[in-house]
Write a structure and sequence with these properties.
By secondary structure, the chain is of the alpha+beta class. The chain contains 10 helices and 4 strands. A 4-stranded antiparallel β-sheet has the order 1-2-3-4, sandwiched between helices. The longest helix is centred in the first third of the chain and has 15 residues. The structure holds zinc ion (2 copies).
């Protein structure tokens, strides 16, 4: 493995994250709040995503003044990407967090999401987002990556797959939507060749009712089932 890649990987393991966080906390956290701040880090000590977020927060404090993380709240989640709010001594800040990394998006009150992100998480408007993000929110909890996410497109249990995901089940025949011939039958064509046909098929599919991801669609789950028989 090339040096840089190895270095990056090591820097994101739980042990390195905890070390980086504690080092930054020595400079960032007011003495009187240290115990509370330590408690939160401890609560998430096995959760890589939460630790990546805490490292980002403590390394680049939003207000560039002493501060501490009180709570991590979940605003939204889609396909393994979390929209989280970090409640600190000074305010509530929005972060986009996934395996790929952490992105700071400013103070919740400022409605700091791009149009692309508003769309992705299904908000009608900035106000719609601000209302949710400033309201009462549940504490962030890690997903059980092995069970709850589609192994291919990372849709969570109950969410729709990305269109084209091989795990999605066909609502007409119960087979795999990318392999059966229902899409061609529905459109009355031999193959889907244009963007317009794809959009038309998506509309017909949504009208019929798409089948969201659930853990029993996982190939490994199906194997276990048949082994037991
Ligand atoms: Zn999927
Ligand atoms: Zn089918």
């Amino acid at each position: 493995m090339p040096f840089l890649e190895r270095h990056m990987r090591e820097a994101n393991d739980v042990k390195s994250l905890l070390r980086d966080i504690r080092r930054a906390m020595d400079y960032a956290v007011p003495e009187a709040q240290r115990a509370g701040a330590d408690d939160l880090v401890d609560q998430y000590r096995d959760d890589r995503l939460a630790l990546m977020l805490l490292r980002e927060f403590y390394s680049f404090l939003p207000e560039a003044a002493e501060d501490w993380a009180r709570e991590i709240l979940r605003i939204d989640r889609r396909q393994g990407i979390f929209l989280l709010a970090l409640a600190s001594g000074s305010g509530r800040y929005v972060y986009l967090v996934s395996d790929e990394g952490v992105e700071f998006h400013g103070d919740v009150k400022d409605g700091c999401l791009t149009d692309e992100l508003l769309d992705f998480f299904g908000y009608e408007s900035v106000d719609d987002f601000v209302r949710k993000a400033t309201g009462e929110l549940p504490n962030y909890e890690a997903l059980n990556q092995d069970e709850e996410l589609c192994p291919v497109c990372h849709a969570a249990s109950g969410e729709y797959h990305e269109l084209g995901c091989v795990v999605e089940i066909c609502p007409w025949c119960g087979g795999q939507l990318v392999h059966c011939s229902c899409r061609h039958d529905q459109l009355g064509v031999d193959s889907i060749e244009t963007e317009a046909q794809l959009l038309e098929f998506e509309a017909i599919l949504e009208e019929r009712g798409r089948i969201p991801y659930s853990p029993e669609q996982r190939p490994s789950f199906l194997q276990h089932e048949s082994e037991e028989e």
